[in-house]
Design brief:
Layout lengths: L11 E3 H16 L3 E3 L5 E3 L14 E4 L9
Length: 71
């Protein structure tokens, strides 16, 4: 991981930061994925992230250079 998901710049990636990063990357990479429902209605696909029991502020990844690493 290069740290692109670290929105706070603190070398800690939370579940919320990771979810936001993944949604933005999906939108950038996939752009508009058009689909049609069974009723013939047009819509677009979105990335759905299920965190389960993980809270939005829970730290998922500690990047090199974090305070815990002593750097």
């Amino acid at each position: 991981m290069s740290g692109a998901a670290d929105g706070g710049g603190d070398h800690l990636v939370t579940a919320g930061e990771l979810a936001t990063y993944l949604r933005r990357q999906f939108r950038t990479e996939v752009e508009d994925v058009e689909s049609v429902t069974q009723d013939g209605q047009r819509n677009y696909q979105n990335l759905v992230i299920d965190r389960g029991g993980v809270q939005v502020d829970d730290v998922i990844v500690r990047l090199p250079g974090s305070a815990r690493d002593g750097q």
